[in-house]
Specification:
12 helices, globular
Amino acid sequence: MIQPLTIPRGPIELAADLHLPDSRDDDRPLPAVVLSTPGSSVKEQIGANYASRLAAAGFAALVFDPAHQGRSGGEPRDLEDPYRRGEDISFAIDALEVLPGIDPGRIGVLGICAGGGYAVHTARTDHRIRAVGTVVPGDMGASFRAFQPDGPVAGLDALARARTAENRAGAPERVAWLPDTLEDAAAAGLTDLDTTQAITYYRTARGRHENSTNLRLARGDALLIGYDPFHLVDPLLTQPLQVVLAGRRGNTGSYESGRRLWELAPNPVDLMVVEGAGHYEMYDEPAYVDAAVARLAAFYAEYLQASVTMR
């Protein structure tokens, strides 16, 4: 069962779907999991694949469009601001805490790809989050620094010049996350398996959604270059941590960032490597997603078992 929700977020609102179990054994308020999804994705894509399965396992699972994206409010459009992405999670928890039928003392978070980094960064300082799960967690800061052909400082200098030019022209630049077709990717020399699988998911009928524009505001890249999702994880991320990784290592860096997170976290409790899976196959390949959710559901069942009264 899916219950559409509108989440107040200061002057704007976030569009959300609350996935609920179709049936329940008792009237006890439900434990809940807030999902933080990959960059460029909307709630009907990867988040829904995981939320629907978590609901079938007995959890309330809330997935939302980030601010400035999808059907959520926020101007300018297509902004990927890692700090606002983290704040979105806390606003989602605000909404869950006062929702009838939800136990505010049993709320966890699940972050996927870039959303994994955002979830961890938020959970460090929002300790209403009682358990942290991640699937192929990405470090967007490391990725965007690596994307700069002449290094991150030169990249920031170029972005500064570009923003000045945008201000003078009055037309903010948008760039594509991915080539729109496999043919476009091949023409650009992007033939590696991860890129082709990303395009196959996001830009074909397999996973494409009309509310996912495949565009991001270029000026937001400066924020991503300077971002470290794991900063102060060691002293602050005291919640139990589950990390799920794809066994086939590719160029997304999620295997490496997941291992780094595991080593940094003070309370890691379960590490799962899904053998044979690639990063993007963890988005929707049923066998891989089912395996990950089975492990995640057991993790949340254990660590969201007891309600915690905040004082």
